[in-house]
Design a protein that fits this description.
By secondary structure, the chain is an alpha+beta fold. The protein has helices at residues 3-15, 19-23, 35-40, 98-106, and strands at 28-33, 47-54, 59-66, 72-80, 83-93. The termini are far apart. The mean pLDDT is 92.
Amino acid sequence: MSTKEIAKTIQQQIFAIGFPIVMSWGPSDYKSVSEKVLKDFKVEGMGALKFQVSGMKFKGIVLVVLNFMDTYDIYFGKVEKNEFKIEKTFENIYCDQLGTIIDEYVEKQDNYRF
């Protein structure tokens, strides 16, 4: 599977939580990330999707990496001095959990009612 196909699949799996929820994060600048570029981030994986968010609880970069266990690792961070600084990591996440975990960290408040 190519890097672009991996990124597209990740994006589709994230959007499975629902378009309005994802849009509440203020997502932008979606990019596929190759295995080589992941090494620059000091992260291992077969490919990834990177995007910006501007949520109520977190503003920065979300990096969703397909790892070698065929699950995902989610990194939340910011770029400081041309280096990706990781603030929070969730490892070995299944595809049906991606949107929920990102929403919990980026946007969802305790007083939200669904």
